[in-house]
Design a protein that fits this description.
Structural class: mainly beta
Number of strands: 13
Distance between the termini: 17 Å
Strand order of the largest sheet: 5-6-12-8-9-10
Order of helices and strands: EEEEEEEHEEEHEEE
Number of domains: 1
Strand content: 35-45%
Shape: elongated
Length: about 210
């Protein structure tokens, strides 16, 4: 966001008025340089590199495989009130779409696969603060905003689908006090053969907001 300076000049006039035939003196002082500058928001994210896509990617996965990842949030600007994270999940069956489904995959489509992608852990914390910022631990939610909506006994990507975590602490201004977002996902051991060759795509949108009303 471009910084827009606005300058307000305030003049103070001190009048010394005398009586009779004396001359009237005027002493003028100027208060200048009173500048009002709009703050900026500039969310910058890394995962130890400039590319933050594919941080949680498992290929040729089998039940029991896990993937851990971390994203780092910085504010290159000067102001911020809070962060929002919105999750969305799309699962699909490329084999069925191409007309050559795997022999053991009797399900046309991948509906429900995201319910077997268990969120083992999730945390959101200020780097170096000593506060773990735990959101999910061992598949169990630590906050009221994340719930086991499908009732399978653990938090999974299906539970996160469509969820927005709001009012999270923002990273500090000018790249101070960055935020670490950590998550570990496991393909649960109870996943059936019907999901062989299928895939789920997780998208997370991070919003850095300036006002509490946003």
């Amino acid at each position: 966001m471009k910084m827009i300076p606005s300058v307000l000049l305030i003049f103070f006039v001190l009048l010394l008025v005398s009586a009779g035939t004396w001359a009237a003196y005027t002493d003028v002082e100027t208060s200048s340089g009173n500048t009002f500058t709009a703050g900026t928001l500039d969310l910058y994210m890394t995962d130890n590199g400039p590319i933050i896509d594919y941080e949680w990617t498992l290929t040729n996965m089998i039940p029991g495989m896990s993937k851990s990842g971390q994203l780092n949030l910085y504010n290159n600007g000067t102001v911020a009130d809070h962060v929002e994270i919105t999750f969305s999940t799309i699962c699909r069956d490329p084999g069925a779409d191409a007309g050559n489904n795997e022999e053991s995959d009797t399900l046309a489509g991948a509906n429900g696969m995201d319910s077997y992608l268990k969120v083992d852990s999730m945390s959101y914390s200020v780097y170096g603060s000593g506060n773990p910022g735990t959101l999910v631990d061992n598949g169990i939610s630590s906050v009221s905003s994340i719930t086991d909506s499908n009732g399978n006994g653990f938090i999974d990507l299906a539970d996160l689908n469509g969820l927005t975590l709001d009012n999270l602490a923002p990273p500090g201004p000018n790249q101070q006090d960055p935020i670490d977002f950590n998550m570990k996902v496991t393909f649960d051991m109870s996943a059936p053969n019907d999901y062989q060759g299928d895939e789920c795509i997780l998208t997370m949108q991070f919003d850095l907001n300036q006002d509490p009303s946003q």
